[in-house]
Automatic annotation (TrEMBL), chain A:
Belongs to the binding-protein-dependent transport system permease family. It is found in: Cell membrane. This is Sugar ABC transporter permease. It comes from the Bacteria. It is a multi-pass membrane protein. Residues 82-296 form the ABC transmembrane type-1 domain. It comes from Histidinibacterium aquaticum. The keyword Hydrolase does not apply. Pfam families: BPD_transp_1 (PF00528). GO terms for cellular component: plasma membrane. The keyword Membrane applies.
TrEMBL record, chain B:
GO terms for cellular component: periplasmic space. PROSITE patterns: TAT. Belongs to the bacterial solute-binding protein 1 family. It is found in: Periplasm. InterPro entries: Bact_solute-bd_prot1, SBP, TAT_signal. Its main location: periplasm. The lineage of its organism: Bacteria, Pseudomonadati, Pseudomonadota, Alphaproteobacteria, Rhodobacterales. SUPFAM superfamilies: Periplasmic binding protein-like II (SSF53850). Coiled coil: none annotated. Transmembrane segments: none annotated. Pfam families: SBP_bac_1 (PF01547). Signal peptide: none annotated. This is Carbohydrate ABC transporter substrate-binding protein. It comes from Histidinibacterium aquaticum.
Length: 303, 445
């Protein structure tokens, strides 16, 4: 037997290619560093904190292992808030999508003051959440609120309705305000896509005898699919972790009926000063969101 | 070479050495240099009405005039928001220099976790003899060590009454017991006016007010040794009273906190109110038509045998331990009690924050105020009530200081108990048992 001599593997790339590769690493390095600082580090820090019992103001505490996760799984608070979060997310997201598509279709038509209407429709989205909530709280107010006043004047109500302090009104209230605040995002995205759908598709459908409803379901909706996937994905993530709007509108009440996971984390971290438990809830929240996103992308990714 | 250069510059060696020696000596005088440095002090408070802000500006301007190298910046926080803001500040080490108007139980919690500078020096600067007796007792968590002091007193749960509506309803005296209050509310409710603006929201006001109601039933949240004592007949009576009052409160009271409750009475939407003396200034400014028809009293109790219990949050002044420029900080904290600025601060909301210094309460400049003169009886009653007031951090003279009271309040566990029983109609025994367990968990840390 004779051994065949082999040469050590050679880098067959030219000096220019190697220089480009080094340049590539150099160019991508800032992104990697920033990504590590703002995503990876906080993520690892949250996981690290979640295995300690930590007093928030001092960030000092003891290692407790999986105790915070056992509390998460067995305590009930997490699951209750997860249920509330899902109701809020599905409710407000559905309304945002329906209202957003509806208004985008309307604003796509040749109507009077279309430009003005397109500008005005963005108003809720640009408004600060704090200001929007103050306005809505004022509208919902039982004693001076325009909503109760109007409904009483119209004879629909005899007495003012408690909009934010009792269930199911409180959940309906926050879902409505959330939909009002964020539907313009859907309008912008859908309107942009609508303007790129070739007109000849509609002409062909009309020749084939398709009515407005048929054209919407057979042409418009399939054409919007790609943009809707992105909108639903983004808005679902944002709504799932929504904090300020809910905190300012109801504070999570009545009792814990509108206490979403974000509010639970806040309450644990700053109400009870239990940063470790709050971090465990955050990690749980992230995993739930991750699971939903993977499922959603798998379902829609191939289409 | 260097020497030659100095020579060429006309500097003899002796002069150069002298200069170096002077520079060295200067380096060993940090305090003197420090005194010349421009420093900034940060002052946090949740009390920031326009009138109060004007008073703070006067205090800041007066202090800065005395200390040219110091500037003071006021930063507002809120009653519901101070806990997370301070938690973040403590955790990051970027703390304010002086914090005022937080409830005493919040300070005691920070003290217990070694986050607060002892306040003894500041009390000495103000003059311990000037304080009303017992004012600083609540801040003496460890013997001889004060975590802070009160910047004022407050009687946060006195009952406010509309005398014109009482007269119309044929009520000839202020309600003393709960039964009398319920009857009065029933008699006065109608024509768009509700009986009372009690809070039923998931917030600290509901917790704090209901703690008072438990005491007004003769009960307590903790025993003097700080064992949880909320699961009692007295709490059941308190919940029953709170449930009975619900029909006399506006529908939206289920979401009321301090602001909504105050506005409901001041606007004339309710016949009774529950608040501090801020009612007086707000009525004068926002609804003067009822200004001649309001008065206040101790909040009724379950029976005449049970003494009134006034909630005083002992609005505090304290200094975080990590605050920069500690000497200047202490001087500024003491300066907050300087008569000119302190009186202006008290006049910003007469009767809302009451003086803790005897010298100020007797000062003609303090008494020379339109609202204090007009409502002297009410201000005196609130002063007396506040002087004998308590809070969850110190429920009675027999109680030990409760350094976890802030966490119990901020957890919302008591407000949740109220909502579950009164709004959701859940089983009282079950809710009380769970509430007691949750408070025990919080106390255990």
């Amino acid at each position: 037997m004779t051994a065949i001599a082999t040469n050590p593997p050679r880098d067959r790339r030219s000096p220019l290619e190697r220089a480009y590769a080094r340049l590539g690493v150099l160019l991508i390095a800032p992104t990697i560093i920033v990504f590590s600082l703002v995503i990876v580090y906080p993520l690892l820090a949250a996981i690290y904190l979640s295995v300690f019992s930590i007093y928030t103001p001092t960030l000092q505490g003891d290692f407790v292992g999986a105790a915070n996760y056992i509390e998460l799984l067995t305590g009930g608070a997490f699951w209750h808030s997860l249920g509330v979060t899902l109701i809020w997310t599905v409710g407000t997201l559905s309304l945002q999508i329906i209202a957003g598509i509806g208004l985008a279709l309307l604003l796509h038509q040749n109507i009077w003051f279309r430009s003005l209407a397109r500008s005005l429709v963005l108003f809720p989205y640009f408004l600060s959440t704090v200001v929007a909530v103050l306005v809505w709280r004022w509208l919902f107010n039982d004693l001076y609120g325009a909503l109760n006043h109007g409904l009483i004047q119209l004879g629909i109500l005899d007495m003012p309705l408690d909009w934010l302090g009792s269930m199911p009104n409180a959940m309906i209230g926050v879902i409505l305000v959330g939909a009002w605040k964020y539907f313009p995002f859907v309008v912008i995205a859908v309107l942009a896509r609508l303007q790129t759908i070739p007109e000849n598709l509609y002409e062909a459908a009309r020749i084939d005898g398709a009515g407005p409803v048929g054209r919407f379901f057979d042409i418009t909706l399939p054409q919007l699919r790609s943009v809707l996937v992105v909108i639903i994905l983004l808005r679902a993530i944002w709504d799932f972790k929504e904090f300020d709007l809910l905190y300012l509108l109801t504070g999570g009440g009545p009792v814990t009926s509108t206490q979403t996971l974000s509010l639970l984390v806040y309450q644990e971290a700053f109400g009870l000063n239990q940063m470790g438990q709050a971090a465990a809830y955050s990690v749980g929240m992230m995993l739930v969101m991750l699971a939903f996103m993977v499922l959603y992308i798998r379902r829609t990714g191939g289409k | 070479m260097t020497t030659n250069k100095w020579k060429s510059a006309g500097l003899p060696r002796r002069t150069v050495l002298g200069g170096m020696a002077a520079a060295g000596a200067a380096a060993f005088m940090p305090r003197r240099i420090h005194a010349q440095e421009q420093i900034t002090l940060r002052w946090w408070s949740p009390q920031s009405s326009p009138e109060q802000l004007a008073a703070y500006e006067t205090q800041i301007a007066n202090f800065e005039a005395l200390h040219e190298n110091v500037s003071v910046v006021f930063e507002r926080t809120s009653d519901e928001g101070y806990a997370p803001q301070l938690a973040a500040a403590f955790a990051s080490g970027d703390v304010p220099n002086v914090v005022t108007h937080l409830p005493s139980f919040a300070v005691s919690n920070y003290w217990r976790n070694d986050l607060v500078e002892p306040f003894n020096d500041v009390i000495e600067m103000i003059g311990p003899d000037k304080f009303y007796e017992g004012v600083n007792r609540i801040y003496e968590i460890d013997d001889g060590q004060y975590a802070g002091t009160s910047i004022g007193n407050s009687a946060a749960n006195v009952i406010w009454l509309r005398t014109d509506l009482m007269e119309q309803a044929g009520i000839d005296k202020n309600p003393r017991t709960w039964d009398e209050l319920l009857s009065a509310c029933q008699a006065m409710q109608g024509g768009g006016i509700y009986g009372a603006p009690l809070p039923y929201g998931r917030n600290s006001m509901t917790s704090l007010v209901f703690i008072g109601v438990i005491h007004q039933a003769g009960g307590m949240v903790f025993s003097p040794d700080l064992d949880v004592a909320i699961d009692s007949q007295e709490t059941r009576d308190a919940l029953e009273f709170y449930r009975a009052m619900r029909e006399y409160c506006p529908p939206g009271a289920t979401n009321y906190s301090w602001g909504e409750s105050l506005t409901a009475f001041v606007s004339g939407a309710t016949a009774t109110g529950l608040y501090t003396g801020r009612v007086l200034t707000n009525v004068a400014a926002q609804n003067p038509s009822i200004a001649d028809h309001i008065t206040c009293d101790y909040y009724p109790t379950i029976s005449e045998e049970v003494e009134p219990w006034t909630f005083n949050d002992f609005p505090s002044v304290f200094i975080p331990k990590d605050a920069q420029n500690m000497e200047a900080t202490k001087q500024f904290a003491a300066f907050l009690f300087d008569p000119e600025g302190y009186i202006q601060q008290l006049h910003a909301a007469p009767g809302h924050v009451l003086p803790v210094l005897k010298t100020i309460a007797e000062d003609p400049a303090y008494l020379d105020n339109e609202i204090i003169e007009k409502y002297r009886e009410e201000v005196d009653l609130m002063s007396e009530a506040a002087a004998n007031g308590y809070n969850l951090g110190w429920e009675s003279p027999e109680h030990q200081p409760n350094t976890r009271a802030g966490e119990v309040v901020n957890s919302g566990v008591i407000a949740e108990m109220v909502q579950r029983v009164v709004l959701n109609d859940e089983n009282v025994d079950e809710v009380l048992g769970e509430t007691a367990s949750r408070i025990e968990e919080i106390m255990a840390g």
